[in-house]
């Protein structure tokens, strides 16, 4: 999964339209973001602990258009905490949208594929026109098995692109978006030769494919690419020896691991101050900001101001901090309300969901691709000791 991202302050009484920046003319309507390193969306319930008592189904709102929302509300550990925060955010979106004509059918899947299947079946039998969720990649196919024969779309919150497609769209921050943005920006400032170190896991595999494709599109070259497991020292030595031929180095991992990898490279003799360091949204982490050797590194992420505004309104309403994934549920519900209002009988049709103009939400611009993945308009942030500063803003519209 992943973990960081944000955005600009508005008064807590901001209207739904203002808070989401709905661009109805296009129909850019609403949207989304966010992912959190504490949850691994490449698996099922990653904690693996016993789930709590299943929460009872709940219907929120009085609108005519019914929307299923499937979350691991009773799952153990961080999964359950994230799900509760996402449910709060979904209800907050409903409250902030003026006179929404939707009703949320909230189902607890307990963090399991079986639970997700049961929740989807209940929602569909109650008249749900589209399903939001589930959170975990392992549960998405169980829901899709029920929705595809009906021609019902799913907007899931997983970051695993392998579960997208055939009516399943992902509303999350995909590693591919981060990589494409940071490579494009780096090429634009003259970087042509790239090295990289990534973890030897599912996230690293996705990053590897996206990175090599993105560098190739920009006619750049990859002079070194190494994966690491528990041992960072050996791959670090290989990369360190090649850095004389590179002018940019990608380290794609979560905050603690990025710092450990940078330390391993330094121990192997690399002078990281002489090369442009690159990262993904997972760099949005205090450990990264506090690392002396990572200062000046660039990473792709949403403009931080959107999440700050959202979090302020969330604190006012619920008296606590939202998890980073909460904006996923908020924007998904806001998008459903906007489409239900403006798109008539075609509100959740594939042609509507894949509108090339995209949607504008808390974390900036995004659009669904026909293959179920998404493209995002991300900012480029620069690591500084007090946090990060934007060096390139988020785009205001998508190109062709």
TrEMBL record:
The keyword Transport applies. GO terms for biological process: amino acid transport. Keywords: Amino-acid transport, Signal, Transport. Residues 40-60 are annotated as: Disordered. Residues 64-387 form the Leucine-binding protein domain. The keyword Transport applies. Belongs to the leucine-binding protein family. This is Amino acid/amide ABC transporter substrate-binding protein (HAAT family). It comes from Bradyrhizobium macuxiense. The lineage of its organism: Bacteria, Pseudomonadati, Pseudomonadota, Alphaproteobacteria, Hyphomicrobiales.
